[in-house]
Each structure stands twice: as C-alpha cells, then as structure tokens.
Design goal:
The complex is a heterodimer. Chain A has six helices and ten strands; from the N terminus they run αααβββββααββββαβ. Chain A has helices spanning 7-16, 24-33, 55-77, 178-186, 188-191, 242-249, and strands spanning 115-118, 124-128, 133-135, 154-157, 165-172, 201-205, 208-213, 221-227, 230-237, 253-254. In chain A, strands 3-4-5-9-8-7-6 form a seven-stranded antiparallel sheet. Chain A has a three-stranded antiparallel sheet with strand order 1-2-10, with no helix packed on it. Chain A is extended. By secondary structure, chain B is mainly α. Chain B has two domains: 1-96, Orthogonal Bundle (Rna Polymerase Sigma Factor, Chain: A), CATH 1.10.1740.10; 104-185, Winged helix-like DNA-binding domain superfamily/Winged helix DNA-binding domain (Arc Repressor Mutant, subunit A, Orthogonal Bundle). Chain B is built from eight helices and no strands. Chain B has helices at residues 4-11, 15-37, 40-57, 67-85, 110-121, 125-135, 141-148, 152-182. The N and C termini of chain B lie far apart (60 Å). In chain B, 38% of the residues are buried. Classes of the chains: A alpha+beta, B mainly alpha. At the A-B interface, helix 1 and helix 2 of A face helix 2, helix 3, helix 5, helix 6 and helix 8 of B.
Chain lengths: 268, 185
C-alpha cells in the first residue's frame, strides 16, 4: 500500500531541503564591518517589566488612569475647545444617515497624518504619517493592478514596519460608469484571487462617490472613487484597522485636472 | 540557547561577544533567509544585513531573553527589503544548485518539489516568512505573530492563504501527472 504523506509533512520536508550552513564569508564580512558601525545609544532606559504590585496598588494606578482619561476626554470634548481641523473631518458624528468619512474617535494605530503628498501623475493628494517615504509613480496606470515596480502607483511606505504602505493610482473610466469601473476593480478576477468582497461599503471621498472594499484577508483595504471620467484607487496595505484607513481617506483631495494620462499610442 | 551574558556584553559594545553570538546564530539565520528568498546570494545579503542591524540596534533590545527571536525578526525584515530591492528581477527565476549538504527524503518526489518550488515563488515575502517560521522552525502562530510584530489574525491569514496556494499547486501537478493513467488502453 502506498500511503502518501500529508501536505504539511511534504511542505516541512521540502523546506528541510536546502543549505544548513551559512557561507563563511558572512561572518567574515560582519566581523570586519563591526568597528566601523557605531551602536545606538539608549539614553533613558525604561524598565521592560515594572516591579510586582499588590492589589491595592494596582487599583490605585487604575483609578488614576481612569481619572486622567476622563479629564483629558472632558477637555477635548468641551464645546469651546477650538476645533480647527480640515473641512472633511467633523468633530462629532453628522446627523445625516448617508455614509460619510468621519474621523473615528477610537485610538488609531497609525501615527498622526502630518505630512502631505501630491501626486504628479494621478491627480490626488493625501496626508500621511511623518517618517514614511514616498515612492512616486513614474507613469500613468493603464491596465491591471497598479504596481510600484511598474511605476504606475504612488507608494507611501513605512519602511520601519512590516511593509505597511498607502498606494494611490487613477485612470480614465474609458467609457464605463464610475460604479461599473469600481465594481470591476474590486472583483476577484481583477485581483486574481478567490475573494469577492461583498457587500462593499459606499463612501464619500472629497465629496465624490465611491466604495470601500474590505473583507479579503490577503488584500489591502482599498477605496475606489470616481470624479467625472476619472477613477481613483486608494489602498492601505499591511494595516487592518478600518478607522485608520478612513482617517487617511478623510484627508484625500481629488484633482482630476492635474492627472497625467498615457498618450493613445502608449495605451494597450 | 544563546548565552545571556554574551548578549549583555555585546549590548555594551563588546565586539568579540557579538561575533560569538553571530557565529552561533548565522547558520540558522541564513537557512531562514534562503528558504524565504530561494536564492543563495540574496540570502547571504539578507543575513549580513540582519547581523549588522543587530549589532547597531542591540542596545535598544530591552529583553535579552528575546535575542534569538529578535534576530529572526531582523532577518525576516532583511528578506522583505531584499525582495523589494529585487522585485524587478522576479521574472528571472534562477535554478538553485542541488549540491546542498542535506539530502531530501524519498517521501517527496522530484515533481512535488518542483511544484512547491514554483508555487512558493508566487507567494509574497510576508507569506513566505510565515510558512518558513511555521513549517521549518516549527513556530506556532502566536510565536510567529510575536516574532514578526504582527497580529495573530494576520499571521493566521497569511499562513492559510499561502498553504492553500501551495496545496492547490501541488494537487494540480499531481492531477496532471496522473492523466495518462486514466486513459483507456
């Protein structure tokens, strides 16, 4: 009888096949480079673990924390607290039942969006966290998924983390309606996977109609919107917090008149 | 297990201590990098970058007991950087030499290896890393999440989709291999 091993066994065994020892040159190179590489200095060392506390001490710390949060909350929510935010973010939920992008009151894992990038190709502008690096598009988005390596996408990435980035691209609707264009670009066939993310959520981005596409685990959260005869594609990759994505979308400005399209002869 | 005293001394700037730590870890780091990148030269670059980054940032490592896991995280991130830097050349798949010191078991056929090799290259670097940490190092998902600094759900999702893709490729290859037998004589 021919008993075939399980898939997991096969995979583990296949991974075993490969070099078990590193080339000696790695250590030689590293050892030679050490004297020229200064170590980072830590000026203030915060203890990794705090010393054990008894129950009363823990309760006291918790009470102080609750009072502090309450005091900060009251200070922030006071009507005369002087809100000076951008025009697309309202300080309180709007009374309208239609979906709109309102900054979430829950804490966001993304740093503050203090920088702004304006695309030279795609006619879009967005705020992003300080310290992230911009890899600007070098040519228009024509077909398929807009990819950085093909130059068809603006990418703003956080190089310090696990590949988190904001992606931006736009293209002419080419004769189809905006919702048709968006539906096609959110479909499984467009992404080459098996996940059709329905229902998608309608959103308003810079006062333009659009849909929010979430729910496919290996895909980035994305938003598709359209103005006139131009469709926009905005993604947040490597981050699963929807509030963060909406926070970014609330900063988007669409400027279709600034977009650059491929010449007819260059379009496939 | 690496010597905690060596980690402490290396963290204080002792180059000899760090060299000993690097010597103890380099084989495992290279093995991980190779399995993620499937390329000996890029694996070598990623391993070097990880070790040099470890030397530079070691004083910022607060929990010395996590040194080994921290190294794994550095090498995985170095692999991401290598993959990003070389993604223009992804189409140029090179054939890996087979004169490695380990010998494959006979339970996995050459055809299966080829299918897995081909399908593995279609995975993202992030998916590859989770597969390698789980199936090569034997890490549970919680440990993978802690090592890579990602949510457990993300680790689970990456492993799920990567495994599904690899399994589908293997099954498709096996179906093709069995086709002639199904034909009537």
């Amino acid at each position: 009888m021919n008993s075939r091993p399980s898939f997991d066994d096969l995979l583990s065994e296949w991974l075993e096949y490969g070099p078990a020892y590193a080339p000696a040159t790695i250590l030689e190179t590293v050892a030679a480079a050490l004297p020229s590489i200064p170590q980072r200095r830590v000026l203030v060392r915060v203890p990794w673990r705090f010393p054990p506390m008894n129950t009363y001490a823990k309760m006291a710390v918790a009470a102080v924390a609750v009072i502090a949060v309450g005091a900060i909350g009251l200070a922030v929510l006071r009507p005369d607290s002087g809100q000076v935010g951008g025009p697309t973010i309202s300080p309180s939920p709007p009374p309208t039942p239609s979906p709109s992008l309102v900054a979430s009151p829950s804490p966001s894992p993304l740093p503050a969006l203090t920088e702004r990038f304006t695309s030279a190709i795609h006619g879009i502008s967005v705020a992003y966290p300080a310290g992230w690096s911009v890899n600007a598009a070098t040519r228009p988005w024509t077909t398929g998924l807009p990819r950085t390596q093909e130059g068809g996408r603006d990418t703003i990435e956080n190089g310090a983390t696990d590949s988190t980035f904001i992606g931006l691209a736009s293209q002419p609707l080419a004769g189809v309606s905006g919702d048709q264009w968006a539906a096609e670009r959110s479909s499984a066939s467009f992404w080459g996977d098996a996940c059709d993310p329905v229902p998608s959520e309608p959103v308003s981005i810079d006062n333009a109609s659009g849909i929010l596409v979430v729910g496919c685990p290996e895909r980035p959260m994305s938003a598709l919107t359209w103005v006139g005869d131009r469709g926009y594609w905005i993604v947040l990759y490597g981050e699963s917090d929807l509030a963060s994505f909406k926070e970014i979308l609330a900063t988007v400005q669409l400027n279709p008149e600034d977009a650059v399209d491929a010449s007819p002869s260059a379009t496939p | 297990m690496l010597d905690q005293d060596l980690v402490r001394r290396a963290s204080g700037g002792d180059q000899d201590a760090f060299t000993r730590l690097a010597a103890a870890a380099v084989d495992r780091l290279y093995a991980i990098a190779y399995r993620i990148l499937r390329d000996p030269d890029r694996a070598q670059d990623a391993t070097q970058q990880a070790l040099l980054g470890a030397w530079r940032d070691l004083p910022t490592l607060r929990d010395h007991e996590r040194f080994e896991a921290w190294l794994y995280r550095l090498v995985v991130h170095a692999c991401y950087a290598e993959a990003r830097a070389h993604r223009r050349h992804i189409a140029r798949i090179r054939v890996i030499a087979t004169n490695h010191p380990t010998t494959p078991d006979t339970a996995i056929s050459v055809a299966d290896r080829d299918e897995l090799e081909h399908a593995f290259r279609t995975l993202t670097p992030e998916q590859r890393a989770v597969v390698v940490l789980h199936h090569y190092l034997g890490y549970p998902l919680t440990e993978i999440a802690a090592t890579l600094g990602i949510p457990s759900g993300t680790a689970r999702s990456r492993l799920h989709y990567a495994t599904r893709q690899l399994r589908a490729a293997l099954e498709a290859g096996n179906r093709l291999a069995e086709l002639p037998k199904e034909r009537p004589a």
